[in-house]
Amino acid sequence: MTERPAQRTANRQLAALIAEAGFSNAGLARRVDQLGLEHGLDLRYDKTSVTRWLRGQQPRGTTPALIAEVFTRRLGRRLTAQDLGLDACAPVYAGLEFAGSPEEAVDIVGGLWRKDSGSHAELRKIAFTPAGLVVPSRDWLIGRADEKVARTEVPVRIPAQGRPATPRLAVPLDPSRRRTPAERGPGQKVSGGDLAALRSVGELFRSLDDRYGGGHARQALVRYLEHELEPMLRGTYGEQTGRRLFAAAADLTRLAGWTSYDIAAHGLAQRYFVQALRLSQAAADRAYGSYVLVTMSRQAVYLGHGREAVQLTRVAQQGVGTSAPPVVQTLLHAAEARAHAVLGEVRACTAALVRAERALEAARPGDEVPHWARFFDEAQLADEFGHCHRDLQQFRAAAQHAERSLQLRAPVYARSRLFSRVVLATARLGLGELDQACQLAAEAAGQAAEMRSVRATEYVRDFERRLEPYRDAAPVRGYRDKVAALG
Description:
- This is Regulator.
- By secondary structure, the chain is mainly alpha-helical.
- The protein has helices spanning 12-21, 25-38, 47-55, 63-75, 102-117, 134-142, 192-212, 218-233, 239-262, 266-282, 286-302, 306-320, 326-342, 346-361, 378-391, 395-408, 414-430, 434-449, 454-466, 474-485.
């Protein structure tokens, strides 16, 4: 790639960081090229390129941000291009930053919403990066709730001429961002009704996701966030209202990530989860932050990154301590069990399942449970047990728990029931019950065809891969005929 003319001053900052990271010039170039591939960039740097950077030449385009991300991953702390003595440029990893302030968090997540609601199809093709989990989870763990989130009008001051000055917001709006009608004047004043509406919207989109899959109304949700929620976040509100507003924003942003995850837009989902984690810190809601980390862990499990998934659940448990309600504790331990199971760690998985079971037994009918944790009941715990035993190839136990989950789970949780049905089919297959396995899987395939959920489709395909050794058996031929009839 073409470089700018050499500068006279050697880049001592970059040299110091290369030494700290223990990179060779060739090793740094190789990592920059690999990171570029994650973003569809064919860079082809080599050790000579790094030598030129050390002499003071500035790489073009997004390369400075890529180099900074390489060092961020290696050293475990957020670094910018300027920290490396390079020219600033737009970050290619926008969305994985853990913002330093509520205002910056709104800028980052607002940018994600606007790009996602437009025709930026490439945003949904960004790759998931396990290394991108380290810095945000650490920053959440060691961070504290923001001291102030309120946005109020500055008191009117009287200039020397005796004429009142125009009131201004204590936190200015971003002048580069396009305005909506709700943002004219000093900013929209957020009311209790606005907060109630946000809660209702969340319930609506969660219900659509549970019944029909994340792809059904995901774009409508993102547009709502752009056109309704962002003006509220940039409006005016007091401290208490602001905390509740950021809590609602965290919840809806996590949901946008969840629906993105369900359609296999994994890099985008990861960014939404990171920003939901940051918004939960502005809300001073430690328990919800732990739930976001559990969500991130579930995505890591699904993508086969078990070690990172375990770490996320442990950070969540450490961050929330023992103060969370029993149902939340159950959720945290169950997520850890799933991560151990995908790694084949029987003892650690069993111990986590026991902790989850005991925590749920400690729950009482009168306990105050956060609205986002109310889904976690006996049916959900049975589902977690079923998945764990399936991954550990303990098929008899997997079948028992999957059947129990199906018996207890309400029909409105259609996708979760589909997952349990496939787990049960897989367990039946593992027990040698081919007829039952194929019958259950055919029912699941029919349900998946009615959903916009890549995860649902992948569950069915995973079962079909397990059928390969039996491909000539009559039940398998019958199953394939039924699936083919679905179109």
